[in-house]
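hey
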């Protein structure tokens, strides 16, 4: 089984951290692959579209090109996606319902299952705006960790090393202010497709998410009529806060044991 991983708002594939390695330990049969959203990582030189569907079209085009070029295997494929990446994934399995066998959504939401205040904690908005005005890697990356990682919030020394790596990655692959706003608009306006996904789907959420309310994942699971598994203490960046838990849960579900 081939597994494609998609990250979220202004995050690139390097920010999956230890999760892919731990997932490979639990499920060696999974072959993990990555694609960055337009505007970040390997695609940081490109302009991000302003709709989830347009982002999905861009990702899907590159995905199929890589298969045609022999850079990606023909299949079978499954998909793991977090936050905004989860919206792209939901749109993708609706557009190509037979492409992916299984879909894992992590801490995602849509505009028709939750209010704007549930989808984004407005108490952190002033800090986000200040970071955007400065747009310095050390300021913005520290803020992202502070609001998305509960391990960083409680002062784990190991996460300082993660911060330093992410600051360097941002310097190597700068993300423009326009990418943030264009992706944010795409996420804010995205609604679920009319039909429930035919792809076998599971949702993972974080009970202690300080960025996005867990009500989003609860309602999303209800609308999709799929199972949701809740982590008790992790923040929004669940792959960073507890990669071992997420890797185990994902591997067991991929094996059909959950």
């Amino acid at each position: 089984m081939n597994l494609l991983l998609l990250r979220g708002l202004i995050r690139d594939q390097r920010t999956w951290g230890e999760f892919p390695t731990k997932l490979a330990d639990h499920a060696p049969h999974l072959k993990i692959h990555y694609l960055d959203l337009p505007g970040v990582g390997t695609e940081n030189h490109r302009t991000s579209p302003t709709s989830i569907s347009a982002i999905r079209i861009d990702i899907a085009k590159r995905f199929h090109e890589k298969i045609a070029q022999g850079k990606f295997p023909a299949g079978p494929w499954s998909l793991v996606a977090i936050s905004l990446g989860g919206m792209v994934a939901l749109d993708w399995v609706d557009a190509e319902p037979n492409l992916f066998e299984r879909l894992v959504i992590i801490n995602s939401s849509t505009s028709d299952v939750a209010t704007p205040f549930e989808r984004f904690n407005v108490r952190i908005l002033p800090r986000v705006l200040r970071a955007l005005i400065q747009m310095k890697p050390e300021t913005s990356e520290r803020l992202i960790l502070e609001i998305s990682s509960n391990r960083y919030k409680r002062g784990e020394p190991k996460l300082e090393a993660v911060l330093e790596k992410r600051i360097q990655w941002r310097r190597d692959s700068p993300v423009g202010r326009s990418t943030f706003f264009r992706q944010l608009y795409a996420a804010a306006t995205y609604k679920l497709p009319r039909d429930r996904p035919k792809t076998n789907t599971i949702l993972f959420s974080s009970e202690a998410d300080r960025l996005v309310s867990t009500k989003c994942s609860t309602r999303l699971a209800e609308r999709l009529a799929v199972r949701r598994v809740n982590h008790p203490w992790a923040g929004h960046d669940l792959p960073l806060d507890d990669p071992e838990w997420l890797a185990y849960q994902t591997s067991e579900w991929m094996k059909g044991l959950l």
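The mean pLDDT is 95. The chain has twelve helices and six strands.
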